[in-house]
Write a structure and sequence with these properties.
The strands form three sheets. An eight-stranded mixed sheet has the order 5-2-6-1-9-10-11-12, sandwiched between helices. Helix content is 35%, strand content 26%. By secondary structure, it is α/β, with parallel strands linked by helices. The radius of gyration is 17 Å and the shape is globular. The chain has a single domain, classed as Rossmann fold (3-Layer(aba) Sandwich). It binds adenosine-5'-triphosphate and magnesium ion. Adenosine-5'-triphosphate binds next to α1.
């Protein structure tokens, strides 16, 4: 599969695992290295809006953390207010998620940057449209031709969720660059063992560790 080198698709082992927190640190890190890095979020649910304009979202968090001076609306294709799965949020708002619009927006935004960090929604299995013409998040990842970065919690339960995520991605021919362990504590024997066993069971490297309230990721392997 052809892979676009200058970017990464951030997924996680589930919702609320830290995709936005980690994406913000990655964009901030790359920009500090002098790489003109940008951010894009194809589909957002649970958006806070005022008079139709996004006022708080993952996009706002990343832009303010990474000092990315962009209008949030330009960095997202679909933003829905209900905090539910995108296929349901779109249905509740009488909208249809179209992959052509996501591709068009992504290509427009990526023209402005040298490296794109794209944040998914939920985990790797995330329906965007479940009608006669279904669309899953995995279809979008394949369409954007980006490698995957999997954000996972360093704690209990992560071996199961990481292995399932890696297996699903491989089954869908999605290349995986690595895994980032969030909420990692040095010296915590569970976290340290999880790190080793995940690499052993999946063959995928842990690229970085992110501590509680970290200002930057701790890279184990060169990134960017
Ligand atoms: N390393 C960390 N240190 C402190 N807080 C964190 C860390 N990682 C995540 N959080 C917090 O946990 C919450 C969930 O994280 P985040 O919003 O990044 O998850 P997400 O995977 O992007 O969720 P969603 O699926 O809704 O997009 C947020 O309040 C975030 O600030
Ligand atoms: Mg998020």
């Amino acid at each position: 599969m052809k892979v676009r080198k200058k970017g990464i698709f951030i997924t996680a082992t589930g919702t609320d695992i830290g995709k936005t927190f980690v994406s913000a640190l990655l964009v901030k890190y790359l920009r500090k290295q002098g790489i003109h890095a940008g951010y894009f979020k194809p589909v957002l649910s649970g958006a806070e809006k005022k008079e139709g304009i996004l006022i708080d979202s993952d996009v706002h968090y990343v832009c303010s953390t990474a000092r990315l001076e962009k209008n949030a609306e330009e960095l997202v294709s679909y933003a829905f207010e209900p905090a539910v799965s995108p296929h349901l949020a779109a249905k509740l708002e009488n909208k249809l998620i179209k992959k052509e619009k996501i591709l068009e927006d992504f290509l427009r935004v990526s023209q402005e940057f040298d490296y794109m960090v794209v944040e998914g929604c939920g985990g790797i299995v995330c329906p965007l449209r479940l009608d006669e013409d279904p669309l899953m998040l995995a279809d979008v990842i394949q369409m954007l031709k980006l490698e995957l970065m999997i954000v996972a919690s360093a704690g209990l339960g992560t071996i199961n969720t990481v292995v399932l995520t890696v297996d699903f991605a491989k089954k869908h021919n999605i290349s995986i660059q690595g895994i980032i362990l969030n909420h990692y504590e040095e010296g915590n024997y569970l976290h340290e063992d999880n790190r080793r066993q995940i690499e052993r069971l999946t063959g995928i490297p842990v690229i970085a560790l992110v501590r509680e309230n970290a200002d930057e990721p701790e890279f184990c392997i060169k990134f960017g």
